[in-house]
Amino acid sequence: MRFQVPQFIEVEDKIVGPLTFKQFIYLAGSGGAVIVLFVLLPTFIAIIFGLPIVGLGVLLAFYKVNNQPFIRMVESFIKYSVTSKLYLWKHENKKNSNQISNPVNRNLVPKLSESKLRDLMWTLNVKQSENPVTGDSDEEGNV
After folding, report:
1. Please, which residues bridge with residue 68 across strands?
2. Measured between alpha carbons, how far is 11 from 22 in angstroms, rounded to an integer?
3. How far is it, in rounded angstroms, from Cα 93 to Cα 28?
4. Are 143 and 124 in contact (CB under 8 A)?
5. DSSP string of 43-95?
6. Which residue of 23, 67, 118, 134 is most buried, as measured by CB atoms within 10 A?
7. Which pTM value belongs to this model?
8. What is the residue extent of each domain of the chain?
9. How high is the pLDDT of residue 57?
């Protein structure tokens, strides 16, 4: 027995004309709120308060941020604004940060001059040329 597998499961169905159900609800809700404003308030004040409401309805219905609906960004903003935040601050003294914390390690590091570095490079080249496969010398052991 064969079954049909839905192909476009991420695309919402168009319910009301070219609009999905969510888009229709956002636009109808903002339009209804503007109508209530026009009934209750004078025309000039209703226009001032109605334009942001219509703008929010259009943004919710059609605008996407990073291929996500605008409502997710609004939800994230509200969640961030409402939840408590934890700020950590660690005070450091400036004179302690300039000093090395362990002076013993500073003394253990040998200083290489240019001549010592050249001697070291020469000994490494000589030992590799004696036994080029492994780099070992028969007389002195492993490098």
Report:
1. 65
2. 13
3. 60
4. yes
5. HHHHHHHHHHHHHHHHHHHH-EETTEEHHHHHHHHHHHHHS----------HH
6. 23
7. 0.53
8. 14-82
9. 95
